[in-house]
Design goal:
By secondary structure, this protein is of the alpha/beta class. The chain has 8 helices and 9 strands. The chain has one domain: Divalent-metal-dependent TIM barrel enzymes (TIM Barrel, Alpha-Beta Barrel).
Length: about 240
């Protein structure tokens, strides 16, 4: 079954974001976690208690630098427990150290240790593929190293991070995703997250050929005006209605 979620506009009032999501039939929202904190501009501390008491489902998207795992795993786990979550996304980056041939192995080891902690608490981990600008966990060969070390971990496929459809196919040959980030992009740009219809991605082709049979979470990473988010969702809904 397809579940539609959206990345929260962290700069908006949280209650307004819930109202918009509910009115437009999103069943959950994605909240970012960075450097030990939930990224929500207009939410009082403790933020996780406010989110919990707001009674609208969310999933945490944790952006982790290469040396963040030992620093922030305990706080991430604490927040997940407060929220009674059984799933979490980690988006790996490497900004604090140069990327070399050993980096992906360090990352795979970090994921292994993190997943052991999460698994002990019955929490499923999704790992996101990167775009070319991040240099790590971007190529299919990188993903293979990570998932060979961590076969129980799931792939979160960010479609806007692909270079082309050959790149997409190579990723899918490593692991089929259980969760997807959706935004549009132009192939001439290394990294973009545009509203659907403003880039060059052929979503009908993607879902009818490359991701045929997909069932799982779809998270719209379209942080724009209301109408652009609504239009983006309608494009994907129509593809699934026509299948």
């Amino acid at each position: 079954m397809i579940e539609y979620g959206r990345s929260i506009r962290w700069f908006n009032d949280y209650r307004d974001e819930i109202e918009f999501s509910s009115l437009n039939k999103f069943t959950f929202m994605q909240i970012w976690f960075m450097k030990g904190d939930l990224i929500l501009d207009k939410v009082p501390y403790p933020k996780e208690e406010y989110v919990l008491n707001s009674n609208f489902p969310v999933i945490i998207h944790a952006v982790y630098d290469i040396d963040d795992y030992d620093k922030y795993n305990d706080e991430l786990l604490r927040i997940l427990k407060v929220l009674n979550h059984k799933e979490v996304i980690i988006h790996p980056v490497c900004e604090s150290a140069p990327v070399n041939s050993k980096t992906i192995y360090t990352f795979a080891d970090n994921i292994y240790k993190t997943n052991q902690l999460l698994k002990a608490n019955n929490i499923k981990l999704y790992i996101e593929n990167n775009s070319v600008i991040d240099k790590v966990n971007y190529k299919a060969s990188d993903l293979k190293i990570v998932f060979d070390k961590n076969p129980e971990v799931e792939l979160l496929l960010d479609i806007a991070h692909i270079d082309d459809y050959d790149h997409l196919q190579s990723i899918l040959e490593v692991k089929f995703p259980k969760c997807i980030h959706i935004a549009d992009k132009r192939f001439s740009e290394e990294h973009e997250h545009l509203p659907l219809g403003q880039g060059e991605l052929d979503f009908e082709l993607i879902f009818k050929k490359y991701l045929k049979g997909y069932e799982g979470k779809i998270i719209f990473e379209v942080v724009d005006e209301d109408e652009k988010i609504i239009k983006s969702k309608s494009i994907i809904e129509k593809i699934f209605e026509d299948k």
